[in-house]
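Work Package 3 (structural annotation) set out to generate three-dimensional models for the target panel prioritized at the project kickoff. During this period the team completed the workflow that converts sequence records into discrete structure tokens, so that structures can be stored uniformly alongside our sequence database. As a representative example, we reproduce one entry of 510 residues exactly as it appears in the project archive.
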Amino acid sequence: MNRTTLSLIAGTTALAAVTGFAALSAPDAPGTDTAAKAAAQLPVERTSLLCPAPSTSDLAETSYTSFTPVTKGTGSGGKAELREADEESADAPADGEDKGTGKDGGKSGDNKPVKPVLTPKEPGKPVTGDSSGGDAPARVGTADGRFAPGWTVQETTEVAAGTGRGLQGVNCTAPDTDFWFPGASTDADRTDYVHLTNPDDSAAVVDIELYGKDGALKSEVGEGITIPPHSSEPVLLSTLTGERQTNLTVHVNVRSGRVGAAVQALDDRLGGDWLAASTDPSGSLVLPGIPKDATSVRLVALTPGDADADLKVRLASPSGPITPAGHETVHVKGGMTTAVDLGDVTRGEAGSLVLTPTDRSVPVVAALRVVRGKGDKQETAFIPATRPVGTRATSADNSGKGSTLSLTAPGAAATVKVTASAGSEGGTPVSKTYTIKAGTTQDIEPPVPGGLKGTYALTVEPVSGGPVYGARTLTASEDGVPAFTVQTLPDDRGTVAVPEADEDLSVLQK
């Protein structure tokens, strides 16, 4: 193997260990026997997360909770912090600019840097921060060393009244270049924004495409949107099109750079919540954690290509798979958003929706709009299709009451270990093991740390069996309104597969 090939292996291996976003294998040089040894799962060394600006309401109260699970092999160094998105750009003002008059995210009047909202001290223990009112900015977080693998930040906002009132929650996400959001709307009662946050030193250029019931909506305004470095832009969907559409799919495609993206869906009558991105388009999808007391569930789906998709619809209930009456299958036309109202499909029991192809597999994205309550006491949340738990998944910002963990095994039965961390202000971790029968969903009251003070995190780790999907629901009572928010639990990507080199690259000579 020549030195050029070995240098490439060394570079790509280092990249995988740093980012944790790719599993890489060594390329083979022609004419040589260089079969890679089994890849080792190593902890990622650095990660980043982006949190959208939480609310424009003066009545908003927002909390941030950070947690990193303890991971073997990470060493003792590293740090993590969550800062305002525009702080870095404000720290480097242009020549002649007053350094003491930066924006809220920059320097204060006495030239002191703004303190990060979160600075975790050690893995295994959550830390919290908060903000009030409608001026809270987007946040950018970075973690390295022992704080990077599995780092999770939850943003939870309570809005007492007005459009979008209720409980809104979102997991802060890693920057990326492609996002799908089925379930958005430009209806008269809805005010939906797509929040775009750029963590990097150069501008990002983004296209926003909208797909309605009849296909793509024309919108030149959504093309070539520039997001300046270290900044966040909320884009009101109704400004991108003159058409009123009850059910939309939003596609965020990044031409250059990378961004974090999330849709804030606010309803005049039904409260509101964050709509996180659906998992990558796939022929089969799982949407876990429909609350058992849901009064209305709507499935919104899109196949991004030209081919139509025919899907079987099954509800994974506590007793096994159930076919919703009158909704055995759903036909999704290519490039068109399809919505199906499933009513109170769970009928008082835990449930997860499982979509599989009836014949040939066509990639699809999907999400659920879920409503709890009746009359003028209703609240809305969203559940996007998600990846399985995989090796490990974490949910932050749990309290002694109001948290439900929903786990489903759509294929083979599975056994999982659920660990409640120490509390942010005190408490002893505790773990319990659960068995999820094949084709079922189980709502569990999660374990609570002994002597809990503050909030805590839940970590889910499959022990044996088939793939497991999960979601966590937070509930609260807001003047009789059953406020709630649901976050899915995909794999935290805390480790990356790194092939073992056949040769010691450190001793190579030219």
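The longest strand covers residues 365-374.
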